[in-house]
Amino acid sequence: MVAIPGPSILPDAVRTALARPMPDIYDGALVDLAFGVLGRLPAIARTSGNAFVVASNGHGAWQMAISNTIARGDKVLALESGRFAVFWGAAAGLAGAEVEILPGDFHSPVDPDALEARLRADSGKSIKAILVSHVDTSSSVHNDIPALRAAIDAADHPALLMVDCIASLGCDRYEMDDWGVDLTVGASQKGMMCPPGLGFVWAGERAVAAMDPDRPRSSYLDWEKRLDPQMFYEIFSGTPPVAHLHALEAALDLIDDEGGLEAVWARHRVHADAVRAAVEAWHATDGLSLNIASPRHRSNAVTTVQTGEIDAVELRRRCAEQTGLTLGIGMVTMPDRTFRIGHMGWHNPPMILGVLATIEAALHSMGAPMASSGVAAATAVIGEALDEGAKPDQTGSEGNR
Ligand SMILES: Cc1ncc(COP(=O)(O)O)c(C=O)c1O
Which of 53, 151, 329, 387 is most exposed, with minimal Cβ within 10 Å? Predict the structure, then answer.
């Protein structure tokens, strides 16, 4: 079983959808399916803006966002809280932007006061766009996007707020329009329960207005023809990613069947709480601890665990080779002293408790310091949620492989 922060486990319905035969790509059922899926996507980011789909991973979605909004020489501010906004900034730099990093660390969210101060210092209002991860998958920080929006407004700054939701989409609450976000990027392989291969960009009015048709940009990623297609062909800049569209339709149906995004977010919260309770119960001197200090800034999609004196590489190796559980590698400052637990997308209590029990067994085998049973603590969290009437099992029989 994989418990890495993406790609996540594929539900049976998604795997079955992937196996459907190839249709005509210019007419008939696929055209209806594509328009149907495109029409359902804005609700996933909670926006009335445009949704664009690109056949790529998340890097391709970053690229689509940059290509359509940022010109060579534009200034971009990337907000550090882990690795990913900085990587996105680097992609903008390669495309010719002048990129500045607002420094942060790997254990806390972006500081809204620091953002406000930096924007106030930009008296010429030359910063064109601000790049931030909603959830940074390396640190597992959950950034407070409304607080960052408030900081931008307090500085009376016109920069576009561009948010990477690749890790958080379908896991942590996200309200693009209510939070005043101009552009959101996502990808298929985490909370959206599909294989890697689809990137999503949601663009609000200000982001669309930033597109300059007279500027050289990528023909494949271009929004202009996708916004006003003369032929179906133009919506995907060529052959549509047919199998992925089938899979995405199945995944959107699963979200609806569960009761919609609110129910999906609630399930993620309970399971993330269970994981966090386990790590806190295990915590002992020189042992495991949560990477993010502030409880309200911990993601419900992924948990980064610091391992103190425990060898995280050996812990992962024992889990993978002796039990079949694959945990996420450490991506923060000391990769051999951190690992990550992905709890994004398709999971139920047996899967989450199985992951935690396996980690506890591996820790036990290593003689690692543990204050108490993490499994007991996690079980109590899930038990309380069951008392409250949450659905315990959203998965099919094969979901927990
Ligand atoms: C927050 C975040 N942004 C961007 C990416 C890059 O996505 P991809 O690997 O699909 O290109 C990832 C990948 O894990 C991510 O977690």
Answer: 387
